[in-house]
Fold:
Amino acid sequence: MAEEAISAGQWAALFDLDGVLIDSSEIHAGSWVQVFRPYGIELPPERLHRQEGRRSLDIAYGIIEDFGLKITRSALDELIERKREIYRRSAPRGLRTDATAALEILGTAGWILGLVTGSVRKNVETALHGDELGVFDVVITAESYSRSKPDPEPYLTACREIGVVPARCVVIENAPLGIASACAAGMRVVALTSTLPESDLQGADAVIDDLTELPQLLRSFRQA
Structure:
């Protein structure tokens, strides 16, 4: 499969989910704030935005270590599941309008489309219905890999699934850890200022404010 994709000159666009395809960053942050507040921990949303892309367990461990919280593993598992339940009750339903348009244009232009997220599959299926998920040639969730962003494994896993080399993959991200993951995987990165300002999105090849800008930008990457 890899040889066919490469010889055909195919390119892939790999999208993060939260804050890129759906407006969920504030909901995730608010869910974390709620579950840690009973422990006397107040989490600034900006801190949580910068952790986007990591799996829930990794985010929770980081908070526990930073605040010196003593908690059993069973209590931690319950906290994470409670956070997910809070999120799913308020999760957005459906793709952003600009995401729908960009995906349609890219798919028509022959781009292979991938979704690479730190969210569990159940959260993804809560936000996106079957037809929307069906747009993607590959869907990589937290269950698909062992090392989360900023490790390159999530994006390299997508590469293996679709048979496209990293040099022909462009990642669309909105958070520093996702950008670092894609760069470590040897991919180009387009950063979206949906959650954080451009100053926090260092390392990206380009920065955009809206996904309507994406198709023309990716066309220029492919022609370069």
